[in-house]
Design brief:
The complex is a heterodimer of chains A (535) and B (365). Helix content of chain A is 48%, strand content 11%. Chain A is of the alpha+beta class. In chain A, β6 and β7 form a beta hairpin. The longest helix of chain A is centred in the C-terminal third of the chain and has 39 residues. Chain A starts with a helix and ends with a helix. Chain B has one domain: Amino acid/polyamine transporter I (Up-down Bundle), CATH 1.20.1740. In chain B, 75% of the residues lie in helices and 0% in strands. Chain B has 17 helices and no strands. In chain B, α8 packs across α12. Classes of the chains: A alpha+beta (535), B mainly alpha (365). Chains A and B meet through α9, α14, α18 and β12 of A and α6, α7 and α15 of B.
Chain lengths: 535, 365
């Protein structure tokens, strides 16, 4: 019907109607309230599902009275062993033995309750009183058991679909720390989190999003740590999402972020359960989406994208060194090409004379200005990176070799670029991959292009202007109402302990104050101080 | 909303004052000090700083008496509509012309130092547009940016001072240690224009979280530039001597040029410090520009200041290109310095007036 409304040419309206005879939506075909008759109920299910080949309707008779019953489920989403052993076997065979032992036969009036209480040997069952609810359950992989004479439908959990097992993280490798990563099944992911936190105060709430996809979206927080206002805000933003389909965490991210006009990620995406849970312990909220092996952590500050789980597992000196390395690397990745362009083009006197002469000698035969040279090389390395990410692993290696030759040698010999430029591009590329979070790394790689243009136009002054503009943008960003540039702007002194440096564990007694948790203390007292007192 | 930092905190208040004061003049301060006070350069810099501190504290007390108003509004409350609005207009003109002056001085210096072939207009317009972008983010953005840049600026100046300590000699410093008191006092008005910027207190007190705009914070905010400026004067005189410093246009940059750092990657450290000085100059331009647009919107009692930012940007640009040459800029500088001092004195008069008449705003009023 929408097609006709959108069509602005009324002459074609009849043609359209001829081609598309009005199709009744399944909801319009039948009355969706349930009745006591099994035939009617089954007909209602069939109205929706009769065209689908994977829907199974299994009708059978129950007990000595032969009460008609039926199972409705989707083949492939259910575990057939459970259906055969724990449902059908019980209902068709063992129930007659039960009748004989009790000396009474089951009547149609009490059949439903009897089945629920005595016959179905499955842990998780539920009842549905409307067709909507039972249909949703069937579509999520449960089994609907319809019994003659009851207005309710028994929902038996027999979920079992092909799923990938828990494996190591692909994008966030770590040397130390647990090696498990989220999978595509929400239940597995929540289990991974529960395994790491046995506090019953950890709440995992689930809502269904997506008008048609009805994707399960769970948000996780710890009562008594997380600020309730933050949880409210998360609920509010999640409930505002009203679209057909939710396929991935990234879609949720784009609906709930604060500013869509920024290249910088305003929520943290991670596939590591340990990162997720430690952020939840910090008073943040994690959002998990069914069918996605990533979790969203909100609110996010820029500094979080420079943290890797090893920082906390390793000794603090090493952790601090790595942190510092990453911050420097991010500055390198963003600013080195533009500074090179500016210095070569406008301020060669900035360099020591021997170095300036060496670079000038290198560049004698290069036909392009420094900006074009740098731009070409940066684009080339981005192309290599992107093609390497898309290609199958076997061919990806070829790209690496070809890229190495092209960038390292051929481009220089062909007189397109100078060796110093190659060195520079290589340093930038390596530095940009040091940042542990993919989305933050790509944002930094992106902003170096406008910076290069500014450098080509205004020299080092342009680079500084770019730095100022970047910082204005960053301080104006918010993530769920929290400042993006914490703990520096606004300065939150107690959070700076876990910022560019990662101070010793016993000094990190407080949770990040910038996310405003209810309970700020991570530990009671400085443990070393306590020992000293004891002595 | 969720954030407890929505109003400006104490550190942000300090950063706002310091970064507004420390600006374009940092690179030429020793020269100005010696030119006007000769042997009294050091003492008079220090005294100008102390004078600025006194005025800042007065403005702080005055602002705290009217916790929800800027000076443009309480001028009207105190002096009546016509006189109050007139003084408010003068204040706007002052803020606008200061923005333009800083912009012009900055662009001239930058052109002379690093961008010899870039047109002055390009430097000015690019700077002004960046300031417009910041001002559109409001007082929170400005405060956060000041907070972000202030440590960088302070650290770089301390680095400069530390690295050039090898050129420093106490012998050269001797003439300024026993200055004539009268000469020092005489040149305070000239030098106090270097410390202008604390007028921002008059405009920002309503945005500060309660009790954060207290006098200790003001003292810290103005103490940072006073200490740094005094150190810069000491270092310049100690490194070059009195007479040679007077010949230099930008003694601070010369100080950086003389740095000899074994095995350094860069030959000329002065460019590095020029770059960091751009940050300092930018925060001054942007903060003054914001004050100008904020005071204008408060004067005409409207709410949204953002259209005024667009409206005032061309005016600032036109004011900035008005002076023809260096003597004219110096003349304008002197006049604006006196205007700034008059505004500080006006604040003191207003405070006395409030204390006499008792017209202060009540906490909930």
């Amino acid at each position: 019907m929408k097609i006709i409304k959108k069509n602005k040419n009324p002459k074609k309206l009849e043609v359209l109607e001829e081609n598309n005879p009005p199709q009744l939506k399944s909801e319009e075909k039948v009355d969706i309230t349930l009745s006591k008759s099994i035939d009617e109920n089954l007909a209602k299910f069939k109205a929706f599902l009769e065209d689908s080949s994977d829907a199974v309707f299994r009708e059978f008779k129950l007990g000595s009275q032969g009460i008609p019953c039926a199972l409705v489920f989707i083949d492939g989403l259910v575990n057939s062993e459970v259906i055969n052993e724990n449902i059908l076997k019980n209902l068709m065979y063992e129930i007659t033995m039960l009748e004989r032992a009790r000396g009474q036969s089951i009547q149609a009036e009490n059949a439903y309750d009897f089945i629920k209480e005595h016959a179905v040997s499955v842990g998780e069952i539920a009842e549905a009183e409307t067709l909507d609810k039972s249909m949703l359950m069937v579509m999520s992989g449960e089994v609907a058991l319809i019994v003659e004479g009851s207005k309710k439908i028994l929902i038996v959990n027999a979920r079992g679909w092909p799923a990938r097992g828990v494996s190591t993280p692909d994008t966030e490798g770590s040397v130390r720390g647990p090696k498990d990563a989220f999978t595509e099944t929400l239940r597995v992911n929540t289990a991974l989190l529960r395994r790491k936190c046995k506090d019953p105060n950890m709440v995992i709430k689930t809502i269904k999003l997506g008008r048609r996809s009805k994707t399960d979206v769970a948000y996780v927080y710890i009562k008594g740590i997380t600020n309730p206002k933050l949880v409210e805000e998360v609920e509010k933003r999640l409930n505002q999402i009203d679209v057909d389909e939710i396929m991935e965490t990234g879609q949720i991210e784009q609906w709930i972020q604060d500013s869509y006009l920024s290249p910088f990620p305003q929520v943290q995406l991670t596939e590591r359960p340990d990162t997720t849970i430690s952020n939840v312990f910090d008073g943040r909220v994690a959002i998990l989406v069914d069918n996605s092996p990533f979790s969203i952590i909100v609110p996010a500050g820029l500094y979080q994208f420079f943290q890797a789980p090893e920082d906390y597992y390793d000794r603090w000196i090493i952790g601090s060194f790595l942190r510092f390395l990453r911050w420097s690397a991010s500055l390198l990745a963003a600013f080195v090409p533009s500074i090179y362009i500016a210095v070569i083009t406008y301020h060669p006197s900035f360099l020591p004379t021997p170095l300036a002469l060496a670079i000038a000698a290198n560049r004698v035969n290069i036909p392009f200005p420094a900006f074009v040279e740098a731009f070409l090389m940066e684009i080339t390395i981005e192309l290599l990176r992107e093609s390497g990410a898309r290609l199958p692993k076997a061919i990806g290696q070829t790209i690496g070799i070809v890229g190495g030759i092209v960038i390292g040698d051929a481009a220089v010999r062909a007189g397109i670029t100078s060796p110093s430029m190659v060195l520079l591009v290589a340093i930038t590329a390596i530095a940009s991959f040091v940042i542990p979070t993919y989305s933050a790394g790509i944002a930094l790689r992106l902003i170096r292009f406008p910076l290069m243009i500014l450098a080509a136009v205004l020299g080092l002054y342009g680079v500084v202007l770019g730095f100022i503009l970047l910082n204005i943008h960053l301080v104006s960003l918010k993530s769920f109402g929290f400042d993006y540039m914490t703990p520096q702007a606004p300065l939150v002194l107690q959070d700076t302990k876990d910022w560019i440096l990662r101070l010793p564990r016993h000094l990190l007694w407080n949770r990040p104050a910038s996310v405003n948790p209810v309970d700020i203390d991570r530990m009671d007292q400085d443990p070393y101080k306590e020992n000293k007192n004891a002595k | 909303m969720l954030n407890k930092h929505d109003r400006l905190g104490g550190i942000q208040y300090i950063a706002l004052i310091s970064s507004t004061i420390m600006g374009v003049i940092a690179i030429s301060l020793p020269n100005i000090a010696i030119e006007s006070a000769h042997e009294g350069a050091l003492l008079s810099t220090l005294m100008a700083g102390i004078l600025a501190t006194i005025f800042a504290v007065i403005m702080n007390i005055l602002g705290n008496l009217f916790p929800k108003k800027t000076i443009v509004e309480y001028l009207v409350t105190l002096l009546g509509k016509s006189l109050g609005k007139l003084l408010g207009l003068i204040l706007i003109i002052y803020f606008l012309s200061t923005t333009a002056l800083i912009l012009r001085v900055f662009s001239d210096a930058l052109k002379g130092l690093v961008l010899l072939h870039t047109p002055l207009e390009v430097i000015m317009i690019s700077m002004l547009l960046t300031a417009v972008y910041l001002c559109l983010n409001g007082i929170n953005g400005i405060a956060k940016l000041s907070e972000l840049f202030l440590p960088i600026i302070i650290l770089s100046i301390l680095l400069l001072i530390g690295l050039s300590s090898s050129n420093f000699s106490f012998v050269r410093l001797r003439p300024v240690l026993l200055p004539s008191l009268w000469q020092s006092i005489k040149s305070i008005p000239n030098l106090s224009s270097a410390f202008l910027g604390y007028e921002i207190i008059l405009m920002v007190t309503p945005f500060i979280a309660r009790k954060k705009a207290n006098i200790p914070n003001t003292l810290i905010g103005i103490g940072i530039p006073t200490v740094i400026y005094t150190l810069l004067v000491i270092m310049a005189i100690g490194a070059f001597g009195l007479k040679p410093t007077q010949q230099m246009n930008y003694p601070t940059i010369t100080l950086a040029r003389k740095i000899n750092f074994p095995g350094a990657f860069a030959e000329r450290f002065d460019i590095f410090f020029v770059l960091l000085w751009i940050l300092a100059a930018f925060t001054s331009v942007a903060n003054y520009f914001y004050m100008a647009s904020l005071s204008l919107v408060r004067l005409v009692t409207l709410r949204n200041y953002q259209p005024f930012v667009y409206f005032l940007a061309p005016i600032v640009y036109m004011l900035a290109i008005l002076p023809q040459d260096l003597p004219e800029i110096k003349m304008v500088n002197t006049y604006i310095g006196y205007l700034g001092l008059s505004i500080s004195i006006l604040a003191a008069v207003l405070l006395i007036l409030v204390l006499i008449s008792g017209k202060k705003e009540h906490e909930n009023g």
